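re: that chain from earlier
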Amino acid sequence: MSPPAWFFTALVAMPALHVVAPGARWLDAPWTLLGSIPIALGALLHAAALRSFRSAGTTPDPKGRPAYLVRRGPYARTRNPMYLAGLPILLGVEVLLGTTTPALIVPAYWLGAMRWIALEEVALARRFGAAWDDYRAAVPRWL
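^ sequence. v structure.
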């Protein structure tokens, strides 16, 4: 399963769990609407990361063959802004739902992201060699 498919599976699983086995309610309306804030922040980060790829003229496809090592935009601060963007989006969905079981999906997403990152970093090291090593040393994986 590709990283986007992994994220969208998590995104669909959360409301499904909320309906099938919601668990305890921990937040009531209108406070659940606060979930829209992290969702918007995550979406903005993801959009900025995609713009960085487009402006560099390379692919964001994790299975693709990037022409350039993107080091600008959010990639100047974190090596994985797209995966990072998924976290506030999923946390925001949990807040919107206001029940406990959707929270089980967040660590599953994180574990999947860590798996994909490990595979991508091996491919980037092969593709970009010393440039990747320099980038990895200069920019943290997360923040």
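The radius of gyration is 17 Å.
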